[in-house]
Amino acid sequence: MALEIIGAGFGRTGTDSLREALAVLGFGPCHHMHEIRDHPEKAGPWHDYFCDGAPLDLDLLFDGYRSQVDWPGAHLWRESAERYPNAKVILSVRDPEGWYASYSKTIKVFRETEIPPEAPHMRQIQEFVDVFLGDRFDSEERAIKDFEAHVAEVKSVIPANRLLVYELGSGWEPLCEFLGVSVPEQTYPHTNATTDFQKHNIELQR
């Protein structure tokens, strides 16, 4: 199964809600960091690539998925766009300051969390996240510059007819128009709020 939709947006830009929305629209299963978090066996290949120098095998990493959003997949947006030339690209974005505030309260905290021995796959996730994020977001100023540069780079590389720049909170209409599907009657999903992420971090440390 080749990817039909590639998510190029950073984590904390509404990616889990977007994952749920894509599933409603018939583009699931959708790969997201939560897929790796909730299925320990999926962490190994990502760790092998980022941490152990294994060859990049996108077909392996996204096996069984029709779409992808969020890190770590979003880190490979360029490679995925080349590998799956018929896939559309969605760049989820939000106010940069708001993005950094959300990142600081969630992913940054996770990176600093002491992982218990009974959750080795979470240690693997933590390790490969540290590899591809590095020290890019150590300060707010540097992080926001990186965020804005990433948005500009995706826009410059992906042709406009293949790309949707999807602003957080935009709802169904621009997404459905881009994908050529009807707008569902149900409300657009709202999942993985900062408080939900923080709750999971607390449970992880117990």
From TrEMBL:
Single GO MF annotation: transferase activity
Pfam families: Sulfotransfer_4
Keywords: Transferase
Coiled coil: none
Transferase recorded as keyword: yes
Entry annotated with the keyword Transferase: yes
Organism domain of life: Bacteria
PANTHER family: P-LOOP CONTAINING NUCLEOSIDE TRIPHOSPHATE HYDROLASE PROTEIN, P-LOOP CONTAINING NUCLEOTIDE TRIPHOSPHATE HYDROLASE
Protein name as catalogued: Sulfotransferase family protein
